[in-house]
Amino acid sequence: MAQFEKEIVQAVLIADNNVWNFKPLSDDNSTALLPLVNVSMLDYALIALNRSGVEEVFVYASLFLQNIRDYIKQGIETYASWSFKMKVQVIGGEGCRCFGDAMRDLDAKALIRGNFILLGADTVTNADLRPVLEQHKRTAKFDKGAAATLVFKQCSNNLRTGNELLIALDNRNDRLHYHQRLRMNQRETRFPIPLDIFLNNSSVALHHNLLDPQIAIGSPSMLSLFSDNFDFQTRDDFIRGLLINEELLDSRIYVALLPPTQYAHKVNNWLSYQLVSRDIINRWAYPLVPDMGVYKLQQEYVFHKDNIYKSHDAHVPKVALRENVVVQTGSHVGTGTVISNSVLGANCRIGKNCELSNVFLMADVTILDGCQLEFCVVGTGATINENCIIKSGAVIGNKCVLPAKTQLAKKLVSAVKPSQEYVLETIGPHAYIISDSATDDPGDSDNEDLLPQQTQCIPKMGDLPSHLQPEDSDYSSSSEEDGSRAPTPLPDDTNIFLSEVVDSLTRGFREKSNPDFLILEINSSRYAYNMSLKEVNFNVVKAVFGMQSIREPANNNVLGAINAAFKQLGTVVSNYIKSPDAMLDCLKALEDVCEENDLVREKISQVVHYLYDKDFVTESAILAWYNQLDDEEHATLKQSLTKLVDWLNQSSEDDDEEDDESE
Amino acid sequence: MTSTEFQAVVLAAGRGSRLPEVLGDAPKCLLPIGPHPLLWYPLTMLQRHNFSEAIVVVLEHQKVEIQQALERTPIKIKVDYATIPYDSDFGTADSLRYIYDRIKSDFLVVSCDIVSNVSLYPLINKFREHDAALALLLFKSGFESDVVLPGPKNKHKPERDIIGIHPDTQRLAFLLAASDCEDTLNIQRHLLKDRGQLNVYGRLLDAHIYVLKKWVINYLHTKENISTFKGEFLPHLIKKQHVKRSAKLQQDTTSELGVNTKPGDNILHYVPTTALNQKITQTSLFNDSLSHVPYHGDAVRCYAIQAPREAIGVRVNSTLSFCALNRKLASIWNDLCGESYPLIALGATVKSTQTKEIIVADNAKLSEKTSLNYSVFGPNCVVNPKNIVSNSILMSNSIVEEGCNIDNCIVGHKAHVKSGSVLKNCLIGPNYVVEEDSKNQSVHLSNADEYMEIDIQ
């Protein structure tokens, strides 16, 4: 019977990804319905599937389920371009909290009959997945344990959006042997890869320049593997679990790389939102470009030179649009306003003499005269009053009203006041700055496969480094690496010790654990690596400043971060920094920290003053340290400390005088 | 002295510590491989590539012996001996440093234990094409995989290298011995970044054929703490590829000596560059990529070439490979050396009629009524009638009396197998006498004690 039935191509589309990353716009609606160049992300994913010949799609949603249901229904009714030859069903997963839950639910519902395409609603791609599906079927013929074929795209990864990967592939059969997600903020200097991979396989290819667009071809066994292993929460868990327990689970993962001409990217945060918007406008994702009528089968825009897409009934003075701009229907732009690299939703009204660059406006946004906007997102129905300056990754929530002359950078603004302590500042009756730290409450809020908690803040938009710039800076950094690399090819004990102390302190800081335990931990590391007391003093201070919260402080408020750290860990530090010699070690460590951390360098005198205030170091130690600083090498450092030292001298003279008087 | 583009250095001062069973006290480079000593093979390879002379590095006390042995072989290349003192700590890098002043141009370093028919021209051309500091040759391993090592069973653990190559450019990213690594391999980011794919091979065999720039030996000369070439110097050199010429450093080189930097320390002091040369590389279309700075701005460049699949390449550095090569030699002889060299030496007497793929050296006497298959018979060895010998190696001056059956064995120098013995998978040490009618399987028969006595005599 079964062989007469034609095998239909099925796909699973996971909506509701990255909820936390798209705050505050994800508060009111599903992230899948967030417009990207005026077309919702769900549409891009559905079109991609339609183009790959998929016949049946299951959209899996849990948050804002009704919105998605309505949207799909409306799409089918209005003959959205994906609705032809493709059946779309929405599956509601109440109480489904992660990707793994969704897969388990799908397994229980037994809707998937064969190999299927698995896609996130946040993927934008013009790739034809049919060859990949065929490849997967071929692999599955040879290897009954082939659980999935992951699809990756080569890219340059100078800019990290959280989708970059390092993988090790077997050159003969494209089997995945190693999978590591590259960290967002930190640039790894080395990648530890298990040696066995190279010993057991004659030829292994390491790919460092890959992007994970969250496309995969799954075998039916993939779903049951999720059911069997209830600890698999995300797709990464699944990959990791399979790689570790290869023999136990008897399953293997394969990889397919997209050809260079095909585009694929995942929109998982505002930074990638900006990138993908740029790529769509620049037509890299062709035919998924605005003037092709991606969603509706009608011409919405007129395509002008310099990648300007303008709706017929938008009122825009000719000079206003510089390049790479999309203007939806009904928008009105005042005279003297200049717009570049931006997207304007429907019915936006922009006043006179504004400057907009890299700005993404949803529908019905009103911007009054004289505003300057740069690298920001403005939600539906928001109003920005006169002469506001908004830049560097700020996100204005739906229906916010910003008072005139507001200046914002890197802030998230919500119109409704959230209940708890998330509010950092109130700037108006319909504008509250909310916390952007993702560590506060990640478990509750990220619904789908978010990265493991490596990021502290939501990645924001910003000036994209041009292609050449990072290379230059990289060369210099790598030459520095060279200097340090030559004598120490392997991490020596000191470095291992330092990193262990950093780990201990970071954990202690996060979990607010008892300082005594931390001291015990550090001491045991100390004996394990045979550190002298001097080295311990030095490294403990260095480690405190090496914690992520200080290296990349929220809002660049390094002093606040240091204060918080020392409040928690002060006991640990003062346990080591007791004698005058130790204080000198402590200050020497600061010297090192200055070189590595720009923020600390700027504020060095305040930092030293803080340590002095809190009695970590004495005045004589500071003076002794200051005097032995090399004039040339630490010229700037010395300069920034001069004031503090003068003040200390002053006060000590006062003290002396007082002493004299008392005598 | 004519100036040539490349000089050739053959390192033949190895002590053969990994083949004690078959070596005895003979120099490693005189191990019999078929009809010729081991050293003959790399020399012939060089000769085939039109080298007219080669520097052969030998141990001082073995020079005469080696010289005599080579004179008996049909070889045209002019051999220039360089002797190094006998000292157990003297590594290959030490040897090269010792003959430092004899190297006047770019040079090839060839190990004496490589037996191969590969063409070196692709290697040399790659070296020329990219003005490389180093180019090396890789074979696929596995030549020995189907051979059972005679003697007691022990786990043979081949030494393996982990080699990283960028497939787009064939640049060598790293080369390390697997035994030197811990459980994880730390791969530095700069090896991966902007360089696309990196292929890591765990089963390739370093042929120990290196093409090197002249300045490399100058650099090596100053690195006196480096003792071995393969183990220490190569990884060092490969790592130094990524050293950047910093602005500060350039100042130092122009303005005499810097105060802080020692000129001997930095490899870039040795790389000859002129402003013109740099400009040429920058503007030339002939480089490895157009989208970034040529060679990523690396002044030191190391390349690895993989020998074609069908090429034969074996390193005779263990008893197993020695055994495997000798056994298979007859079948690959034509590929390896061409038909110009006979497999059965003119001075040998072969009366046996049942032979298959055998190699016989000078003055060997193989009597009638014997069945001899897939075996090698060294000089002056004697096989009496009524014997069956297969898959075995009989080294020089060994004697097999009547009625023996020898299968998969190595019979050492001057060893004596008395009549009626049945030996399978055995290693017979030098000078050992196998008693009459003894039956042995998978044992190592040697008389280390007696051997000492004989030595004293």
UniProtKB/TrEMBL annotation, chain A:
Major location, coarse class?
Answer: cytoplasm
Question: What PROSITE patterns does the entry give?
Answer: W2
Where does this one sit in the cell? Cytoplasm, Cytosol
Name a Pfam family for this protein: W2
Q: Which intervals of the chain are annotated as region Disordered?
A: 461-493
Which InterPro entries does the entry link to?
Answer: ARM-type_fold, eIF-2B_epsilon_N, eIF2B_epsilon, LbH_EIF2B3/5, Nucleotide-diphossugar_trans, W2_domain, W2_eIF2B_epsilon
> In the record, what terms sit under GO molecular function?
guanyl-nucleotide exchange factor activity; translation initiation factor activity; translation initiation factor binding
Quote the subunit structure annotation: Component of the translation initiation factor 2B (eIF2B) complex which is a heterodecamer of two sets of five different subunits: alpha, beta, gamma, delta and epsilon. Subunits alpha, beta and delta comprise a regulatory subcomplex and subunits epsilon and gamma comprise a catalytic subcomplex. Within the complex, the hexameric regulatory complex resides at the center, with the two heterodimeric catalytic subcomplexes bound on opposite sides.
The name this protein goes by in its record: Translation initiation factor eIF2B subunit epsilon
Q: Which organism is it from?
A: Drosophila lebanonensis (Fruit fly)
The encoding gene is: LOC115628707
Automatic annotation (TrEMBL), chain B:
The answer, when asked if Protein biosynthesis is one of the entry's keywords, is yes
Task: Identify the residues that the record assigns to the Nucleotidyl transferase domain, covering every copy.
Answer: 8-135
InterPro entries for this protein? eIF2B_gamma (IPR051960), GMPPB_C (IPR056729), NTP_transferase_dom (IPR005835), Nucleotide-diphossugar_trans (IPR029044)
> Known Gene3D superfamilies for this protein?
Hexapeptide repeat proteins, Spore Coat Polysaccharide Biosynthesis Protein SpsA, Chain A
Q: What is a single cellular component term in the Gene Ontology annotation?
A: cytosol
MF (Gene Ontology): guanyl-nucleotide exchange factor activity; translation initiation factor activity
Which BP terms does GO give this entry?
cytoplasmic translational initiation
| Superkingdom assignment | Eukaryota
Question: Which segments constitute the Mannose-1-phosphate guanyltransferase C-terminal domain?
Answer: 357-436
Q: Which UniProt keywords apply?
A: Cytoplasm, Initiation factor, Protein biosynthesis
A Pfam family the protein falls into = NTP_transferase
Q: Where in the cell is it found?
A: Cytoplasm, Cytosol
Q: What does this protein do?
A: Acts as a component of the translation initiation factor 2B (eIF2B) complex, which catalyzes the exchange of GDP for GTP on the eukaryotic initiation factor 2 (eIF2) complex gamma subunit. Its guanine nucleotide exchange factor activity is repressed when bound to eIF2 complex phosphorylated on the alpha subunit, thereby limiting the amount of methionyl-initiator methionine tRNA available to the ribosome and consequently global translation is repressed.
Subunit relationships: Component of the translation initiation factor 2B (eIF2B) complex which is a heterodecamer of two sets of five different subunits: alpha, beta, gamma, delta and epsilon. Subunits alpha, beta and delta comprise a regulatory subcomplex and subunits epsilon and gamma comprise a catalytic subcomplex. Within the complex, the hexameric regulatory complex resides at the center, with the two heterodimeric catalytic subcomplexes bound on opposite sides.
**Family per similarity comment:** Belongs to the eIF-2B gamma/epsilon subunits family.
| Protein name as it appears in the record | Translation initiation factor eIF2B subunit gamma
| Species this chain originates from | Drosophila lebanonensis
By which gene is this protein encoded? Answer: LOC115627790
